[in-house]
Amino acid sequence: MFSGLVLATGVVSARAARGPGLRLAISSELGVLTLGESVAVNGVCLTVAACTQQSFEADVSAETVQKTTLSQLASGARVNLERALALGDRLGGHLVQGHVDGVAEVLRSEPVGEALRVFVRPPAELARFIAPKGSICLDGVSLTVNASQPAAFEIMLIPETLARTTLQGISRGRKLNLEVDLLARYAVHWLESSVGPESSGGLEKALARAGFVSEPNV
After folding, report:
1. Domain boundaries defined on the chain
2. Cα 92 to the chain's mean position, in Å?
3. What's the per-residue H, E or C state across 101-129?
4. According to DSSP H, which parts of 17-61 are helical?
5. What is the maximum alpha-carbon separation in the chain?
6. At what angle do helices 202-209 and 182-194 cross, to 10 degrees?
7. pLDDT tens for each residue of 78-107
8. Nearest to 49, CA basis, from 65, 30, 28, 35
9. What is the spatial distance between Cα 137 and Cα 122, in angstroms, rounded to a whole number?
């Protein structure tokens, strides 16, 4: 589990094919890691397979190659890095699993003072999980959704985020690993199951059964 607060950026020093997957070697300033620990690389949870004081290696499975942007990383590419949370750590961002739901695309950006407003198009099937003032994780960075429409949502990148992450070079057409908010995923799943063909009463009764609203009058 992660928080979406990037601890450091790293540089891909090498990549090698491993069947349908690949192995990445990444130089970083995370310090000495341990074999088997989890590290988020651009928002993707990977397992440390080898490490030195200045670098680590991790395998990327065929599934991850298919569903994230990691397969597009070339030697020299910068990546956002975060070590897994320890119990008792401050949760400054939001709960992030490192399980990417899909790849989003930057539509456009515009400066707002020293900040940057960015408009992002998510995969259509993920739009229902994105709500104004909710949380979203893009390339491993925890962000707040400023506004949301079916085809796009808006975020604001403050100077601190621009300085500490790879989002400083964001531009139109860039692909980003997107993970929706964990709570939104389960809330939507529960609601869709509750108002499905096998249930009766629709959304209002489903919310009433959960105690969120009063039981509707029949």
Report:
1. 8-83, 102-180
2. 15
3. CEEEEEEEEEEECCEEEEEEECCHHHHHH
4. none
5. 67
6. 120
7. 999 999 998 888 888 899 999 999 999 999
8. 35
9. 12
CB–CB of 131/122 below 8 Å? no
Residue among 23, 144, 13, 28 at smallest CA distance from 80: 28
Enter the CATH code of domain 102-180: 2.40.30.20
8-83 CATH, one of 2.40.30.20, 3.40.1010.10, 3.90.10.10, 3.40.50.20: 2.40.30.20
Query: What is the model's pLDDT at position 182?
Result: 87
2 contacts 45 by C-beta, under 8 angstroms: yes
Beta-bridge partners for 18: 21
Q: Would the pTM count as exceeding 0.70?
A: yes
Measured CA to CA, the distance from residue 173 to residue 154 in angstroms comes to: 15
At 209, which amino acid appears? R
